[in-house]
Design a protein that fits this description.
heterodimer, A: 504 residues, alpha/beta, six-stranded mixed β-sheet, 38% helix, B: 329 residues, mainly alpha, two-stranded antiparallel sheet, 13 helices, 4 strands, 2% strand, globular, disordered C terminus
Chain lengths: 504, 329
């Protein structure tokens, strides 16, 4: 029970918000030198638990012990002082000032009353070298990739705040494979030094790669804490979802039946489509009722393909034909008129408008297509909104809810609804399931498959192979801003991985 | 080598552009009007634009935090009028000057407090501050108040000759702005206060999470701007030997234009006070050229400054666009 090596012990934590019980009697413990994965669907209570631990929220009930002593975390600053630091997916540092400042600021060395820059740079390099990465600390942080920025954030947590507990909140979401490996190497080193790490992620693979123990939350309740080695993956997913995996398996079967139904008709054709400096000429063909998977690593050119087809960037090579008509002008509005829609990768920055309601968000693209002066009556708007809320199963008390108050999965559905409302023939989905929980992922995948059955064609871009393979009829692999290969939907993931890595 | 030069230009490009434009404008002026080649013309830039430089220094720090201070011209008018009125009542200048500085700091702190704790937009809060301060100046006196105090006269009219340059001089009041410039450089590059300004200008939430005292810094920045405006008011009233509510009408906009010409981004976090110095010097050079010409309307200053400010905003976004891809990867 009371293990001496526990750094953090939270017991009976409860927290409710108006109308929602976010946490109900949750126990959680973290050992010294342990990587502990915290898993659960969106809304399971992970964030709230972390917020309680870092002092953003005060628990209604329950106790927190740090090194065996009861503590009360009053604020994020206080939690940092106690040695509990968090590194978020969106790195909370300042990109305009130097790496050294980002590490040292607030605890910078002084000489004769002014900042001792030389010493600060020295201390910062020494600190970041501890993670065995090579960074020029005098450069502005913005010159480095997100991965390095995360390392800097970790360095700050360890060096300046001498953290004993490190919380990594979705750290790998925007990293590619190599960067993730680098982060994991760092995590393993820290583990050896006795630092306790709470690791929050949606990637099952990564959990099994690195975590010692797994705690699963569901609907604000503790499902249990398990040794990673003795918990089969299927069981973990089942525990997170609270239901069996038969649904997932059933899906792939419907697809293979669907495949028999072959009435091919080319809907969209790109010939040598390219943009100098962005994408080498690519040939793509998209048939009706088809889902075309676009696989590749981060930066392989997946998003660039989507941007060219949708007209975000105008291609300077090749041609694009949609429904037999050759595209002359390239802009998102022209694409909408052609019947092409794009759900962009970066949901927060490019997709939703958080301060508008669900209804307004859904209407946006339709309004743009109709022109600014054609008036959609409130009644029509409500009808459209209600239709899609029902169709996509968006969980909300009313269409007038602000989108920023929805969970990630529901936000994604709102964007999907926005483009569906324009009744596109071709739907490009760029990472539609990124950062949302397993349940919502499955729902989105099902939706996409249903849309294809109903006659829409989809280009489905995802960095999760499993997902691409499950729902695509054909898969195109991108590498180094080129089309590397094209496979039928029944290709195995090993082949894909090798193609992506450039070994085939 | 090339790899080192590129980041250097990306980082200091806007500042170098400003300096280059100043030199170009100055040389062009000298070519057109040989009288402009006299060294004294250069020092006149500091004599004439001392107040603008003071106000712009305070403005730079405010803009670096991502805010704006529209009250500067009003505070200048208020302190100039109030000090003239107090001097006429026979109060010693050694009391008046510190008192006016206190008024400026107090006024700025108040605006900073309203912005930080009542969450009022800086634009609105300082616009109200502008109306209030200028209004108060008119309450004190509807007409210009002349200053006859001897200390003021001495400070305003005693030339200080520049060593090694014959017949070139400045006044004691001219030195205030360069000294404050040095203070601002020190503050912004060598203190936690200054670095916090940069950090919060980039991302206030992050600065807060880094444990920096964002609230205190924000109030202090507006207080510093109030301090600069009060100093500018004193310098202004000394050089004109008068105080008047109509002084420095629209100076807040000249200051913002100078700050932007100096390469500071209105979105915060990018730029520095050295650039602002050159922004102000460009402003002064345009004014000088027009004066030497003598036939052109003084409104050409505004047109020139307007055009240059637009060019600078264009240059800035070019640099920003160039920088962006490296941030993406």
């Amino acid at each position: 029970m009371a293990e001496a090596q526990d750094i953090i012990r939270m017991q009976g934590i409860a927290k409710s918000f108006p109308g929602v019980i976010a946490l109900e009697a949750v126990d959680f413990s973290l050992r010294k030198g342990e990587i502990h994965a915290l898993m659960g669907e969106n809304g399971a209570g992970k964030s709230t638990l972390i917020k309680v631990l870092t002092g953003v929220e005060q628990p209604d009930r329950g106790t927190i012990e740090l090194d065996g002593k009861p503590i009360q975390v009053r604020s994020p600053q206080h939690s940092q002082e106690l040695g509990i630091s968090t590194v978020y997916q969106e790195v909370n540092l300042c990109t305009n000032i130097s790496v050294a400042e980002n590490i040292m600021l607030g605890h910078e060395p002084h000489r004769f009353g002014s900042i001792d820059w030389r010493k600060m740079n020295e201390l910062a390099s020494k600190a970041i070298n501890r993670l065995s990465i090579d960074v020029d600390v005098t450069q502005p942080l913005g010159n480095y990739s997100v991965a390095i920025q995360q390392m800097v954030a970790i360095t700050r947590a360890l060096e300046v705040l001498s953290a004993k507990v490190l919380i990594l909140d979705e750290p790998t979401s925007s990293l590619d494979i190599h960067e993730t490996d680098l982060l994991f190497a760092v995590m393993r080193n820290l583990k050896k030094e006795g630092i306790g790490i709470i690791f929050i992620t949606h990637f099952l693979d990564q959990v099994y790669q690195i975590a010692d123990r797994i705690t699963v939350l569901r609907n604000g309740k503790l499902v249990g804490t398990f040794e990673a080695a003795s918990l089969p993956r299927v069981e973990l997913v089942a525990k997170m979802l609270g239901r069996s995996l038969t649904e997932l398996n059933a899906m792939s079967k419907t697809r293979s039946q669907e495949e028999e139904n072959k009435e091919k008709q080319t809907l969209m054709e790109a010939k040598g489509l390219g943009l100098t400096g962005s994408l080498d000429p690519v040939d793509l063909e998209l048939n009706s009722n088809e889902i075309l998977g676009l696989a590749g690593l981060l930066g392989s050119g997946r998003t660039e393909v989507a941007n060219l087809i949708f007209g975000v960037d105008a291609p300077d090579k090749g041609s694009l034909t949609v429904c037999g008509e050759k595209a002359e002008r390239f802009s998102p509005l022209e694409s909408l008129k052609r019947g092409v829609a794009l759900c962009p990768e970066n949901r927060k920055a490019e997709g939703i408008v958080g301060d508008l309601t669900i209804r307004e968000n859904i209407i946006l693209a339709l309004q743009a297509r109709c022109g600014w002066f054609k008036f959609l009556s409130r009644q029509e708007q409500d009808q459209i909104a209600d239709k899609y809320i029902k169709l996509l199963g968006i969980v909300t008390p009313s269409p007038d809810q602000l989108v920023k108050n929805l969970s990630g999965g529901n936000q994604q559905k709102v964007i999907l609804a926005r483009w569906l409302a324009t009744d596109p023939k071709v739907l490009i989905l760029d990472e539609p399931t990124r950062g949302i929980d397993v349940g919502a992922k499955t729902e989105i995948q099902k939706l996409v498959m249903k849309l294809a059955e109903e006659g829409k064609s989809c280009v489905f871009i995802s960095s999760e192979l499993e997902e691409v393979l499950r729902i695509s009829h054909r898969v195109v692999v991108m590498r180094d801003r080129k089309k590397a290969a094209e496979y039928a939907g029944d290709v195995d993931d090993q082949t894909l991985i090798h193609t992506m890595a450039g070994e085939l | 080598m090339v790899q080192q030069i590129k980041p250097f230009f990306l980082r200091y490009g806007p500042l170098l552009t400003t300096i280059a434009i100043f030199i170009l404008a100055y040389i062009t002026g000298g070519q057109m009007y040989p009288a402009m080649q006299k060294p004294q013309v250069f020092f006149n830039l500091f004599i004439n634009d001392g107040s603008l430089l003071l106000v712009s220094i305070g403005m730079t720090l405010v803009i670096l935090t991502g805010g704006i201070d529209l009250s500067v011209g009003g505070v200048l008018a208020l302190t100039s009028t109030a000090s003239a009125a107090l001097l006429r009542m026979g109060v010693s200048p050694y009391i008046v000057i510190p008192l006016m500085i206190c008024v400026g700091v107090g006024f700025g702190s108040m605006l900073g407090w309203i912005i930080q704790y009542l969450k009022v937009q800086p634009f609105i809060a300082t616009l109200m501050g502008l109306f209030f301060a200028r209004g108060m100046a008119y309450i004190i006196s509807l007409t210009s108040v002349t200053i006859t105090n001897d200390v003021y006269k001495t400070l305003a009219l005693t030339p200080i000759y520049i060593p090694f340059i014959p017949r070139a001089y400045v006044y004691p009041t001219t030195l205030v702005a360069p000294v404050i410039l040095l203070v601002a450089i020190y503050l912004s590059f060598f203190t936690r206060f200054g670095r916090t300004i940069y950090a919060m200008g980039n991302n206030e939430q992050s600065a807060l999470l880094m444990g920096l005292s964002v609230a205190r810094t924000k109030v202090a920045v507006y207080a510093f701007s109030g301090f600069c405006s009060a100093l500018a008011g004193i310098v202004f009233s000394m050089s004109l030997l008068a105080g008047y509510g109509q002084f420095a009408t629209g100076m807040e906009l000249d200051a913002i234009a100078s700050v932007v010409m100096g390469g500071t981004s209105l979105s915060g976090g990018v730029g520095n006070v050295i650039g602002t110095l050159f922004g102000v010097l460009i402003h002064g050079t345009i004014v000088s050229i027009l004066q030497f010409n003598g036939t052109l309307s003084s409104w050409w200053t505004r047109i020139g400054v307007g055009a240059l400010t637009l060019i600078f905003i264009g240059v800035q976004s070019l640099f920003y666009l160039k920088k962006k891809p490296s941030q993406g990867q």
